[in-house]
Amino acid sequence: MVFDGLQPAQVTPELMPNLSRFAERGVFFANHHPVFPTVTRVNAATMVTGRYPGGHGLVANTMVARDFDPDRVIPAMEPVLAELAKATRRVLLAPTLADILSSHGREYTAIGVGTSGNAYVHNPRADTSGGATIHPEFTLPASLRDRLESRFGPWPEEAFPNTPRFDRALRILTEHILPERAPAVALIWSSEPDKSQHKAGVGSDLGNAALREADSRFGGLLDWLDSTGRSDGMDVMALSDHGYSTVSERIDVESKVRDAGFPDGPPGVSGSGGEVLVAANGGCVLFYVRKSDVDTTRRLAGWLMAQPWCGALLSSDALGPIDGALPASLIGTVGPRSPELTMSFRWDSRTNTAGYPGFAYSTSSEPGLGQHGAMTRHEMRNTMIAAGPSFKRGVRLESPSGNVDVAPTVLRILGLSGAQGMDGRVLEEALVDGPEGVDWTTETHNADRRLGSGVYRQ
Length: 458
What we know:
It is a single chain. It is built from 14 helices and 24 strands. The protein has 458 residues and is of the alpha/beta class. The strands form seven sheets. It has a five-stranded mixed sheet with strand order 1-9-6-7-8. It has two domains: 291 residues, Alkaline Phosphatase, subunit A (3-Layer(aba) Sandwich), CATH 3.40.720.10; 116 residues, no CATH class. It is globular.
């Protein structure tokens, strides 16, 4: 079960008593991380592929897929992703858990009430790989939608918190997916607390209500597993896709880029090279330079570094070194759909009115509201807790883990092959037959560039 946008600091007996008790009986991954950009669809794709964004190809919530349309920034939402699938025959560039399980004669079924794009990437090839994806707006395979609506009725309207829709998802999970389909892996995705934190802020009354309601439903699910005798043979993983911060100021990056003299070219027509496409993603921005023009990219990088809202800046390894930028390979975003430059907004660790640390600039929200997408310490830390027959009991792990480790760990628990080529690792130290700990180190990477107004340093 995924709690969208849940921070580890929110897992408390006051806000989430059921999840807190669940953590006590299992493994709490205290050093867990999303991939960057810290947006939902990117991390959903990472969870099911075990790959960093460059490897699975869904590099942001809004992006350019040059194998699809090199002149357009597209939203990674279901209608467009379906177009991408039809045109290129591959939404993701790596096999998913659904694909791998299918090769072993097993099934992956996902149900979620977040965005259509998030749901779509869990099993884009359900028509051929089997299993299913279920969402209020569509299903994969498409034929499943009418059967479910005939049985369970139409989906409730979206709400804040989005509990009515999640209640419907839980009903489908417990009455259809688990007892009737009996998949090897089932996923249920709650859009909370993300939906309410975007609307009212981290730690707001609405956000806290969303946490309590999501936790109540999680407790109900655990009770159902117990009452139906499924608990003893089932592992449960509760996790989130990313952390959160608070918006300090909204920045219209695209307008500023155009005002600085970087054109985007005529719509629908490939330019001569050097035009810049801007893909805004909340706390980060991706910059695609037509024909990967090196001179334009270098000028753009220098201009960005001089802006007071520019934080970490990474450049495509294919361009060669750019003064002040770090190589994108450090964060796993190098691949066929990678941008020339990726920028996280500048951030700090001030606390908001509810006491939650982390402020950052944003492309899409207003000051004081919740956001994610950036490389802040607070967004780059998310939640994972696991319990069941495969996991140790009452353990808090400080070794680094991440959403990229979910797929290989699931395959290890199931005793199935298919993790070869994944970027993630099996979290052996969490398993009952695993070691007490693992060796790990931290590396620090620095870059700087002297500008007319001073020095940019990251």
